[in-house]
Amino acid sequence: MFVPSxxxxxxxxxxxxVPRLAEYLPASIQSDTxxxxxxxxxxxxxxxIAVCAVxxxxxxxxxxxxRKVCAHVQCRLGPMRLGWHGTIQTIADVLKMLFKEVYAPSxxxxxxxxxxxxxxxxxxxxxxxxxxxxxDLVVADVSMGIPLIIAVNGFGVLGILLGGWSSxxxxxxxGALRSGAQMISYEISFTMILxxxxxxxxSTNLMSIxxxxxxxxxxxxxxxxxxxxxxxxxxxxxxxxxxxxxAPFDIAExxxxxxxxxxxxxxxxxxxxxxxxxxIALVTNSALATTCFLGGFLxxxxxxxxxxxxxxxxxxxxxFFAKVFFMIWCYMMVRWTFVRPRVDQLMDFEWKFLxxxxxxxxxxxxAYIVVCG
Length: 373
Hints:
Blueprint (H helix, E strand, L loop, with lengths): L8 H14 L9 H42 L15 H10 L11 H21 L14 H8 L1 H13 L3 H32 L4 H6 L9 H4 L3 H16 L11 H4 L9 H26 L11 H9 L2 H20 L7 H30 L1
């Protein structure tokens, strides 16, 4: 049978019910192999629906959250008219975007033009499938989770480059080239920090990395390795912000210089897909930070039995999403607090500061493991 390494009550229920329902079929086509394949396909469909629900369902919430965070940082109220405190404003914007006419500029490579937004969406969806939301809530518990995440991150760069090149617009092309240079540069630091996590945890499996932080808050990787863990977390935060093209590192979309960047010529649903990919990437990077540094779905125990007993009563998935939304809030606060640097300053910051610091961090981490075990 196709039984995963980590089972889930829903999956177990499907594997139990399929043979029972198969009894109503003619005896000539009944077989354990067929039952196993059908149960696997049903569970795969449920997993796809779950990943889409988490990613697509979180986007309207995050758009509303970002508008409110932006407004309050700037001493404003944000959306207030549609629904209670503007809660329906995002739904209205989504509907408007979906019903707008979709067209491509003359001279554009239409196949690549419409394929680019789909390619950009691939990476965050795959990463989401690898993240353990609970002890038995993970779609794909693969042993090489971190290397796979590093590999699929390149899809985002490819989609943006294709979108800018296929638009037949010089501003879009410049924005795509800027974005490609920025994302490739900062993905080096992003990758090195993930390798630091692999080195200190001794595993590339995300579930193993999470379970290696069991105990109290001091056992989380951000605190478990003195000083180095906090430095690694800060470097991860900076490099992931740049890798997502979020302000203050949104050089690829600098409106005053590029009219909007690589998606200048996009409208309607294709533009909404680029917009959606940004917020899904925000969720997946926050989830990755939670998994690698903040204990994942583990509760924030403090070593006091009376308190820890109550903390352990809360389901792990609740703790996971609480930490994820804390990380999202941090990303948003940085976006609306700091000013955008020049493109040369941004690239200098990566190659002359972040990359050397990451190399030193890896060496220091290796030395810590050798000395302290």
